[in-house]
Amino acid sequence: MTQKTETIVLGSGPGGYVAAIRLGQLGKETALVEKDNLGGVCVNIGCIPSKALIRVARLKMQVEAAKQIGLDVSGVKVDFARTQAWKQSVVDKLVSGIDFLCKSHNVKIIKGTGQFVGPNQVEVASATGKDVVETKNTIIATGSRYFDLPGFRFDGTHVISSTEALSLQTPPGNLVVIGGGVSGLELGIMYANLGSKVTVIEMLDQLLPGTDIALVKIVERSLRRLGIVYHVKSKAKEYRDGKVYATLEDGKETSFAADKVLVAVGRRPNSDQISLEKVGVKTDSHGFVQVNKRMETNVPGVYAIGDVVGPPMLAHKASKEGIVAAEVIAGLNSEADFRAIPGVIFTEPEIATVGLTETQAKEKGYDPIVGRFPFTALGRALIAGETEGFVKIVADKASNLVLGVHIVGPEASDLISEGALAIEMGATVEDIGLTIHPHPTLPESIMEAAEAAQGKAIHFLQK
Amino acid sequence: MVYEFRLPDVGEGVAEGEVVKWLVKEGQEVKENQPLVEVMTDKVNVEIPSPKKGTILKLMAKEGEVVKVGQALLSIGERGEETTTAKSQPTITQPQPKPISVPTTSSQAAKPTQKPHEILATPATRKLARDLGVDLALVQATGPAGRITDEDVQRFKQPGRVSVPGAVQVTGPRGAEERVPFRGIRRKVAEHMAKSKSTAAQVTHVDEIDMTEIVQLRQKAKDAAERRGVRLTYLPFIIKALIPPLKQYPYLNSTLDEEKAEIVLKKYYNLGIATDTEQGLVVPVLKDAEHKSITQLSTEIASLSEKARAGQLALEEVQGGTFTITNVGGIGGVFATPIINYPEVAILGVHKITKRPVVKDSQIVIRDMTYLSLSFDHRVLDGAMAAHFVTAIKQYLEDPKLLLLETD
Which of the ends of chain B has fewer CB neighbours closer than 10 A, N or C? Predict the structure, then answer.
């Protein structure tokens, strides 16, 4: 059976479903193809479930620590099965919300696995058979999947990916995390808070590779406090008889007992399962689909967005790109022209960054000034009992233009949006410093850092 | 003690500079060597560092103002000190008993300013520009920190500039107008050209050149050059063909010293290369061209024009020219009448090479043809010499083997 539509969106993650809804808003006939649940990795087995579990783990830690401030709750117990059920209810709510929004915008949802069979033709295979859908435009929003690691074959029970790690019914006794990147550390810290003994093995020379080391240092301090053992410049070799064998930085061979091994060593684009060769869509050597600022591939009528077009692999980037692709298809003049994409890491404490680091600013030819404000000097952070970390603002000396904002500390993920807005608006540190920030709140730290960049922070003694 | 800082002599022959941008404010504390002001002199920007530590008491020139060497720029002192001298002094130039030397080494003093070029506009303004079809790179920013505002975009996109289908003309019959500050390189070029036109008695001599041999020669040499990492253009060949005639007719490589009533014949060959940049015409100088190989010339021209476009030329890289070449062949046209780069006395226009039918040995054949246009100062030399000079260049270009007879 052959169906016809104006636009097919392949994949319903935060890129795909957003593109489909925008297309619907713009009156375009749209079909959204999804082989699994609506919402993709992010909603089902990524951002959302992980943040839900992290919330519970943090809450436990905070309640236990509350004794110091006069709130003595004894016998804190986590009913993890119930936590999991609650997490799933959050996911389900979001999935049905996406379903509702798509249907309300006349987006047709087709369940099945899509692949190109020719120009303007996508075949969707499902349990009930195969359908060919003819289309004028296609948006590739197929996302990414995790890499596997030699010596560690995923078995779903002992050697697991983040997907299983987010669905365990009890926290593991010993958890070995291979890969000290974002999801490895987030989940490692979460389980450590829930009582697991966690070991992290990272191949590169620092945890959270690519993140400013000054920010990572703060997180390392809390890892040590949580009893998480971590090894950088170390290589995990294999999992055998309940143990992970590894070569450490000093060359020493060792092994770690592991009830569960979480392999989180990065993600690769899902560009290899949709028969791109049938339409001649170009990818680079890593398999990322190549697009321009309008999210157009080299083939007219074929667009690509999100993880499949390259890093940073972030849901919010995918969504913005989805909107751009949808608008371009509808004949609008849109472009992915954002100056900065914020990145957030839900570690303990959180890290959030946007824009250039001091080093990157120098490399770009700026003469940067830096303003730093520690959370120890902030009333609200003291009240929250979370004084670790700081806000760092990088600005151009000549124009005071905000170039980057880097935060490690309480609610960094919520604080960073002000930095993103500042960069997009071309704000200066004066603009931020002169804006009244309500007291007592965490965002005051950004105002103070902006003032510090100009050498005039009030609540922090500058040399 | 109040110290009055005057525009130092930043390089040979620089008599004045335009204050492009103040990098400090009144009342600001400055460190020694901290950049105070960006000054444009002779087509390059230099940052002038502070000679001492202190507080900026008063800025004595406005941005856009032209300041003579030795004229007071600002005063530095202790916080709260009065700028008594500044008050009593009129803003006109005070005769300086001694020229003030640059307070630090010259490399620090005359540092070309280089800033990353970023187009700053809010997301909404960027969208407005896209919707109006305006290229933000061309829009003059008036907002703080160099931000382009909605108004800037609207001003750029006025009716009359580009017709918008269905657009209603709400402005007067002549359309709206945009006022662009006449500053920086644009003003320098204007002054320079007007001075040249009003001083020199300019005549342009044009000749037709058969470039077939050069085209073939370049074609052959191109790959070899590329292997050495050099992108070979026609300009180095033209320079090679130009040097012997310049030596033969030294009046073309001279200046007129009217005060002493002497013509100065230069025995060195520093060629100005007219370069188009976003800000306007800049003429970096290729020093001692007579001693350089084709590949050296290629590499140096590439590097100079790149620096020119990035606004990173050092002062010495735009000074000391003896003869200028302007090459518009890459753009098009038949030929032009270039304006002499005063105080030089001649400029050679190099134009587009096109295949044209020509008569050779009583046959109509297809050859790679171009025009060379030489503008010269008729006060210093006459038409006959100019014609001889161009004929000599023509001879080398049409038969490049003759260049083997030349030294260097």
Answer: N
